[in-house]
């Protein structure tokens, strides 16, 4: 009889059961996290796809107008055309100060002076030397003037002698033109007949009253005929070589007088012709200049026309001047030439070749709001200076029509137009993209049927957000595509597995099927595929 033997069931140990439970919990956790990661990645893909859909282009119109590029972050300090600092050059006590700040002065004006009783004796000696040298120089110049006057008189006297001799020689000379002589003789005869006729008529009315009109007219006619007769006679005698004795005597006397005057002029010239030499004049002038320079050390004298900008000298100040001291410069007055104002600025080497002499600039001041000034670039340095690894070039701007609001030392902001296009065709930079070849610039032109056509363009200058385009296929008013945002998203490049990798926890191997402890944290067999 078969006997059924019942084997006792193997009992699962408590430790094994615990291990199984832990594995199940881990597996459930991995699956839950994988599902959560899947849902999050799917939402991100939808969001990016929505963003890509929104990148369907808007349009803008091609415009035509002026484009400019401006350097507007340049600052500089205003200075006057010229500033002159005048220092004391000797010791003494200030006796007078003749100017105040703002006064207009001329070149040579004495602005301040030391008390004569407190200055060095060498300055007093220089005053005496200067006076003596000036007297000697004056005598030299006087002699020189007299010499030139004597030479002029001598030349004039020689000319008078020549003229008198010619006048005397011309008397008694018979002219060879017989036809002209005959004409003069006939004129003389007619003049005699006219005079005799006029005289005869006057004699016939001479018994009338002196105030009678007929008598007065007859007398006037007779006198006029007499003058014409004498003139005709003189001309006839000159051609005929006939002269009056009195004419000869007058001409001879005139010649002798001219000769006497020439002799006097020559004697006067010979007396002073050996006057001072140029070396004598230069020597005395040098003495005058040297002495004047010493005398002027006790004065502050303006060397230019200008405006008093600073006055440090005060009456009764005691000036101690030591020539060898490093602190010998004691300022008395500063003079500024405010006829024009300048601004010194600098630009980098990247911009210097876009700037030229004579270029106009705009100028503003924080200290003078709502006012705009203009200027002109008058100097550009040919050599740059290196500062913190950048190279800068110095420029000077001359202000146009600066008013009284402008003060030396003010900070000015200068704007320079470095590039401009007067009649440019342009679009916003967002309308220009690069073709698939990676080189050609294109814009997408909207066609009448609503489609877009890629139009190759050349780009010119950029101004802010606008860029110049050059193309014979585009004109003002054409509509071209622009993107709503500048960054684009390509959904085809989004790899789900990569997204998973990015968001997984540490210690993951990231290989397909690498689930479980130490794996990628994805369900077994579920990793590595693109969605």
Jot down its keywords.
single chain, 531 residues, alpha+beta, conserved putative lor/sdh protein from methanococcus maripaludis s2 fold, Elongation Factor Tu (Ef-tu), domain 3, 6-stranded antiparallel beta barrel, 4-stranded antiparallel beta sheet, 19 strands, 38% helix, elongated, disordered C terminus
Brief account:
The chain is an alpha+beta fold. The chain has 7 helices and 19 strands. β17 and β18 (466-470) form a beta hairpin.
Q: Spatial order of the strands in the main sheet?
A: 2-9-13-11-10-14
CATH class of the domain at 71-76 and 337-420: Mainly Beta
Roughly how much helix do the residues carry, as a percent range? 25-40%
The CATH architecture of the domain at 71-76 and 337-420 can be named as Beta Barrel
Radius of gyration: 57 Å
CATH topology of the domain at 71-76 and 337-420: Elongation Factor Tu (Ef-tu), domain 3
Layout: helices, strands, pairs:
Blueprint lengths: L13 H41 L3 E4 L1 E25 L4 E6 L6 E2 L4 E5 L6 H49 L8 H28 L7 H28 L4 H28 L5 H18 L3 E3 L4 E6 L6 E2 L11 E18 L11 E6 L2 E13 L4 E3 L2 E10 L11 E18 L4 E2 L6 E6 L5 E12 L2 E5 L8 E4 L13 H8 L28
Antiparallel strand pairs: 1-19, 2-9, 2-14, 3-5, 3-8, 4-7, 5-6, 7-9, 9-13, 10-11, 10-14, 11-13, 12-13, 14-18, 15-16, 16-17, 17-18
Helix pairs in contact: 1-7, 2-5, 2-6, 3-4
Can you walk through the features of this model?
The protein has 531 residues and is of the alpha+beta class. Among the domains are: 12-55 and 495-531; 59-64 and 423-482, conserved putative lor/sdh protein from methanococcus maripaludis s2 fold (Beta Barrel), CATH 2.40.420.20; 71-76 and 337-420, Efflux pump adaptor protein, beta barrel domain (Elongation Factor Tu (Ef-tu), domain 3, Beta Barrel). The protein is 38% helix and 28% strand. It contains seven helices and 19 strands. The strands form three sheets. It has a six-stranded antiparallel beta barrel with strand order 2-9-13-11-10-14. Strands 6-5-3-8 form a four-stranded antiparallel beta sheet, with no helix packed on it. The two termini are 68 Å apart. 16% of the residues are buried. Mean pLDDT is 78; it is low at 1-5 and 486-531.
